[in-house]
Specification:
heterotrimer, A mainly alpha (about 300), B alpha+beta (about 400), C alpha/beta (about 325), A: about 300 residues, mainly alpha, about 75% helix, B: about 400 residues, alpha+beta, MetI-like fold, 5-stranded antiparallel sheet, elongated
């Protein structure tokens, strides 16, 4: 078990370094420089800027400097927000993003799984049709549409919710719903189909034949097995929430990381793009690692420490 | 009891037994798919959307980039006020339009006077003045009215619309630059679907080849190839699509396609590899190897056709996620560049004026949702039809 | 001797979207304490559904349509689901065909066995665990203290079936229903499991219903048997009676299709054709389309049950007094049902 974690951590670090390198190469292979604007910047200023940000150093040196910074968790200065470092941007944006994302994750789990189970147990009944209808709607409507509809109806027409910012607790409702919408639906559908599959299994029949009361047949024997594929989805779910946050934070005007990231993309703020990509990737890799470990806890057939 | 009934009947003819006609895999799958109403609906919607995108733009009088600035921001439903023997429509940016009785927008009326303090604008129609007083409920002295403005033409004052008509000139309304939204949504269908189809095909191609080589070769080759896939898989792919889009610097149609195609083949490769690993153990492959059939031929003639079921299902699911990702990229400003428009771009453009012109978001969003729904239904049906585990009865 | 189980005119159907699938169409048999009853038939003959009906474990969309199941004189069809679940595992236990899939993969053997023992007995966890280990060693699993902590995937197929039997017998049930318990196992393991069942049921005083398609298995351990085909009972009697004096062409066909050690020269003769479609069962005898001696009446009318000997009945028109004479058949039997 421990050797497995070590092995996974080592491979996570290697992956991360590869990602950082790839990102570095991509950003530095863009023709022109980060200060190439539509309106040409005077040569003098360009030279000063390049000097200030060490852009006149040979590439390998820049690369090693960047990597050195990365190891010491220093992601360098922002090119567009003069005087701010990428670290500060992340530190400023991460708490809001994490709160919204965390709430969304909780909502996904506490809503998606029970709804899926109920739907499976009531297969082909009205409640099943209703839940599946909502869930299908949820996976087909992009998060930006959900977000804008929430703003239009609940913030605009009804005035129940603030249309932007997180200053009041009510302000969380919109972003969290928009962020969680897709994944709740996905988890509901996944739980339902996995539950239906499990209910057909022989061991469920065995449990019944051994006189286990129906409640425990479901709660103990079926649910744990049905959750195995759901846990597998939690990894990609992190990714869905990350990308969702790019959109949702922009629409709800939340000063989270997602918004900074999108801004840095449109400003071509290369250090910020690089830094945030690496940060997101690290976050993602750690979350997926945690999910994999949880997976091992649920499913004893996954022998930890022995791959394939 | 008559004794004749106790005579042997001898050989019973075959037709007494229930014999089901034997069907090929694909015929059987198609038979099952046809029975799935939702999937057939999905196919119908997909065909309709393709026609909508391909043929549709030829049927509208505008092109996707035609701007009629005078007619900007007109909604699909027009509240018409009577003025003499014609009708008027006032847009949310105080443009007064003359509209025919059946909902055709005729022309914009020139504004000749602007009294901001009293909130009265005067327009001119055929030499006569049209006075719009929109001070109601805004000036402190004029509170509590159930209407917000009046239109006066030749002494006749209207405060309620005569009737509401569908906008004949712009059935889906027009956008902030006076472009026909119907035409733009049609072009959007073209672009969104084109991006999705091409990206999916490229992903399919790369994924199938990569996966079948890894799966068929096995051993070290497989190990190395799958390690690469693992690494790519541990990267949040949307970030990489974004990076690629930043790297390309200009948001061309082909750049999106390349970006989408270059990262999403991973799941396909995994799927195909799994199929290959299972299939290559089977006797017919062994037989082919024993007969000296070249590797390439075994992969393409024997293995891939047998793995086609799951591949097609995965493909049907890949198209909507490509539509989704494209919409998402466009939405954060990395989509196709203006004046071209995909559904995501249209949704993005509509965002700023959402509270005033919600219809501008409604139609592209509806188009995305419908397409997603259709592909999801089709994918679900295909899975049921092609899944060999369920293949019975 | 008291009747342990009596099944009278059991009819079970599945109501699918294609129509009513009549899986069991009137099955009647009884067994006494200590009996080992074999139910034999090919797949789709309704033997498993009969067993599941006794346990009342027929899943939606299936349901027992008619008939009664008397267990120690009490009609189980009238029992509520709650009462029924108290009975399952304690009075009547069941083991299934595929031991690979019949144990829950995410719980240890201990967890699953303790759960069942504590469901039916008021004992502490520790006592239950001790009982479980005792059962495991009884079924021949070495080092039960260690193996009990294993997950099912750490066991081989034979070991899993042993664990299944241990669980099923842990509450000393009066009746054990074994649905093809050895089909999924290797031949050598099959014999071991059968021996084990025979030995244990003697020790714990449990009667068995053994469902199988393998006549060899029946010959080995059963004292009574029922032959089913197309959801109907073809022939029933003691094992000796049926093996020595098969009185139904289907039974005869079954016996001919089994290899025998003692007459090596004889050819194996498969029964041509395939079983009837239970969605639209033939109105006559279900076997008539494959029967080498089918008569006109066989196609038109379901045969009544004829008494061949004491406790030996057969549903075949050939036994009717008007039927043409047949070598080895006993014309003119009494109609008993």
């Amino acid at each position: 078990m421990n050797s497995y974690i070590t092995k996974r951590l080592v491979s996570a670090v290697i992956t991360l370094l590869l990602i950082a390198t790839l990102t570095f190469v991509m950003m530095h292979s863009i023709p022109g420089g980060p200060f190439t604007r539509e309106r040409p910047v005077p040569d003098e200023i360009l030279r000063t800027l390049n000097e200030k940000y060490h852009l006149d150093d040979p590439l390998p040196k820049q690369y090693f400097d960047y990597m050195k910074g990365l190891i010491t968790f220093d992601l360098g200065p922002s090119y567009s927000k003069i005087g701010t470092t990428v670290n500060e941007l992340i530190a400023g944006g991460f708490p809001d993003s994490a709160r919204v994302g965390g709430l969304a994750s909780i909502l996904i789990i506490v809503m998606g799984i029970p709804l899926g189970i109920i739907s499976a147990l009531k297969q082909n009944k009205t409640i099943d049709y209703f839940v599946m209808f909502m869930a299908t709607l949820g996976v087909t409507v992009p998060s930006f549409v959900i977000a804008t509809v929430i703003i239009y109806i609940f913030a605009g027409q009804l005035g129940w919710l603030p249309s932007f910012g997180l200053s009041s607790p009510l302000g969380y409702i919109g972003p969290v719903l928009a962020l969680a919408g897709y994944s709740i639906s996905f988890v509901t559908r996944l739980t339902r189909s996995s539950m239906l599959e499990v209910l057909r299994q022989d061991y469920i029949r065995t449990a019944r034949a051994n006189g286990i009361p129906e409640f425990w047949v479901i709660a103990k024997h079926a649910v744990k097995n049905a959750l195995i594929p759901v846990v597998t989805y939690l990894g990609p779910m992190v990714a869905a929430i990350l990308t969702g946050s790019f959109v949702v934070e922009r629409i709800f005007a939340i000063g989270g990381m997602g918004r900074y990231f999108v801004e840095s993309v449109s400003n071509r703020d290369y250090t910020t793009i690089m830094g945030m990509t690496v940060f997101y990737a690290a976050f993602y890799i750690i979350m997926v690692l945690l999910v994999d470990l949880a997976y091992g806890l649920i499913d004893p057939r996954i022998r930890l420490g022995k791959e394939e | 009891m008559s004794d004749s009934r106790f005579e042997f009947v001898g050989e019973i003819s075959e037709d007494l037994e229930s014999v089901r006609p034997s069907l090929t895999y694909w015929a059987d799958a198609w038979r099952r798919l046809k029975k799935n109403k939702l999937s057939m609906m999905g196919i119908a919607i997909i065909i309709f959307t393709i026609l909508f995108g391909v043929v549709g733009p030829f049927l509208t009088p505008y092109s996707y980039s035609d701007q009629i600035n005078d007619f900007r921001n007109t909604p699909p439903r027009l509240e018409l006020y009577a003025a003499g023997d014609t009708y008027l429509y006032l847009t949310n940016d105080y443009i007064l339009l003359e509209v025919s009785e059946n909902g055709n927008i005729q022309r914009r009326l020139e504004r000749i006077e602007k009294d901001i303090f009293n909130k009265i604008y005067v327009y001119e129609m055929d030499g006569e003045a049209v006075t719009v007083d929109f001070s109601y409920n805004t000036l402190p002295t004029k509170q509590g009215y159930d209407y917000d403005f009046t239109i006066e033409y030749m002494g006749q004052v209207e405060n309620q619309p005569a009737f509401t008509k569908w906008n004949k000139s712009f059935p889906f309304g027009s956008d902030g630059l006076g472009r026909d939204l119907l035409t733009r949504v049609m072009y959007g269908a073209r672009i969104s679907l084109f991006v999705a189809f091409v990206a999916t095909l490229v992903n399919l191609f790369i994924g199938v080849i990569y996966g079948s080589i890894a799966g068929f070769e096995g051993g070290r080759v497989d190990n190395i190839m799958m390690r690469i896939v693992d690494i790519i898989n541990s990267i949040p792919l949307v970030l990489y699509v974004i990076l690629l889009m930043v790297w390309f610097r200009n948001n061309g149609l082909w750049n999106i396609i390349i970006a989408l195609s270059s990262v999403y083949w991973v799941s396909m490769a995994r799927l195909v590899r799994g199929q290959m690993l299972a299939l290559k153990e089977q006797e017919f492959v062994l037989a082919a190897i024993t007969l000296g059939v070249p590797k390439r031929k075994i992969i393409f003639r024997h293995l891939i056709p047998n793995a086609m079921g799951p591949i097609i299902v995965a493909m049907a699911m890949m198209i909507p996620s490509a539509v989704f990702t494209e919409a998402f990229l466009s939405f954060i400003g990395l989509g196709v560049s203006a004046p071209m428009a995909s559904w995501g771009v249209l949704a993005n453009n509509a965002l700023s004026g959402l509270t005033t012109y919600p219809y501008q978001l409604f139609f592209p969003a509806l188009a995305i949702a419908f397409t997603m729904l259709a592909f999801n239904f089709l994918g679900d049906g295909l899975r049921d039809a092609l899944d060999p585990r369920l293949r019975k009865g | 001797m008291s009747r342990l189980l009596e099944v009278n005119n059991l009819k079970t159907s599945f109501y699918t979207h294609l129509g009513e699938v009549q899986a069991v169409r009137g099955v009647t048999f009884s067994m006494d304490k200590g009996d080992i009853l074999g139910i034999v038939g090919e797949s789709g003959s309704g033997k498993s559904v009969t067993a599941l009906s006794i346990m009342k474990l027929i899943d939606h969309p299936g349901r027992i349509k008619e008939g009664e199941i008397l267990f120690e004189g009490e009609d189980l069809t009238a029992r509520t689901e709650k009462k029924m679940s108290e009975l399952r595992g304690s009075e009547i236990s069941m083991i299934f065909q595929d031991p690979m899939t019949s144990l829950n993969p995410v719980y240890t053997i201990k967890n699953q066995m303790v759960e069942v023992i504590r469901r039916h007995n008021k004992v502490s966890k520790k006592e239950a665990a001790n009982r479980a280990m005792e059962m495991l060693s009884l079924v021949g699993i070495p080092e039960p203290e260690r193996r009990i902590k294993s997950f099912p995937h750490e066991f081989s197929g034979g070991m899993r079936q042993r664990a299944m039997i241990a669980t099923a017998l842990s509450c000393s049930p009066k009746l054990l229903i074994a649905d093809e318990p050895t089909t999924a196992l290797d031949v050598t393991i099959q014999a071991q499991i059968l021996d084990l069942m025979k030995k244990l049921t003697k020790e714990i005083d449990t009667s068995i219903i053994l469902i199988t398609h393998d006549l060899g298995v029946i010959a080995e351990i059963c004292n009574k048997m029922v032959v089913m085909y197309g959801g109907m009972m073809m022939e029933k009697g003691t094992t000796d009676q049926i093996f020595h004096k098969p009185s139904h062409p289907y039974t005869v066909g079954l016996l001919k299709s089994v290899p025998r050690m003692d007459c090596a020269k004889e050819r194996l003769i498969p029964i041509p054709g395939s079983p009837p479609d239970l969605l639209a069962p033939p109105k006559g005898c279900p076997f008539s389309t494959r029967c080498p001696h089918a008569m006109q009446i066989c196609l038109e009318e379901a045969p009544p049950v004829f008494q061949v000997e004491e406790n030996h009945t057969s549903a075949c028109w050939l036994l009717h007094e008007d039927a043409p004479g047949m070598e080895g058949y006993h014309k003119g039997c009494d109609i008993v049902g």
